[in-house]
Amino acid sequence: MSQAQYPIGTPGQPWGAEERALWRAQQQIKRSYHDEVEAPLQQLAGKFELFQYGELNYPEGNYHLWGAQSHAWNEHLPTVLVTGGVHGYETSGVLGALRFLQSVAADYAGKINLVVLPCVSPWGYETINRWNPEANDPNRSFVKGSGVAEAEAVVNYLAESSLMPVLHIDLHETTDTDNSEFRPALAARNGTVNHNWNIPDGFYTVGDTERDQVDFQAAIIAGVAQVTHIAEADEEGKLIGEPMQQHGVINYPVKSLNLCAGVTDAPYVSTTEVYPDSPRTNPENCIEAQVAAVTAAIDYILAHAD
To answer: Locate the Peptidase M14 domain: which residues (predicted)?
Structure first.
């Protein structure tokens, strides 16, 4: 789909308030944040300390932003931050964070301090959107003063809590709708020309150009390879237009792009990307891949981090 084909806006002209309002009016609630995220999280209250780190107040509804953390916090243990649902439409990021809490997180009690923010963008989760209601991408907005409420809630929480994680892993997906909807919408919104990328068939990670932990990323790939397939490079040796650093790994300058993975100074950071539209996988397998990525990352830092 080219920019000219997108149904909102005039080619070559960035959206104004009218176009953003039109886009917003076309969005519909398709699933329940309360039923699928909040309710399962509340069931874990006995195992973890649940906390509200923010609230989103939109005409479409109010959303409480929840986190879960270790009950017995020990300042001498490494701290791990797991985030999901920065892009609400990326389902396995949300459900993978919840599944990690439900299934294996308790195994790390007494080994790490754990903080999980399972659904950073609940409106995006309910409407299956990359953007928030104001047509802004939270994952380009993790900096103080961005004006994007979902990202600022995380930024403010981290500042107020003085959290200093050793590891931050951010759970994402790359889907076919990136090319069919979200990249064309982005180009239309910005008044630019859309260029689709090849969607990688399989799991990959995005590391940080400035914190290039080669062995750490390789450990995540090896862990996930036990449950699902790893993306191969395209004919140009790239994934989503970026050069491969090693099997299944590309790098972004995450801090300068204001990505969620750059929101802390953790020495170990990774963004996961699963491909739910592959004929070789299914929703359950994608959730399992996210859990495998988190556990492999934690196991690595327990074995190697100071």
So the answer is: 29-305
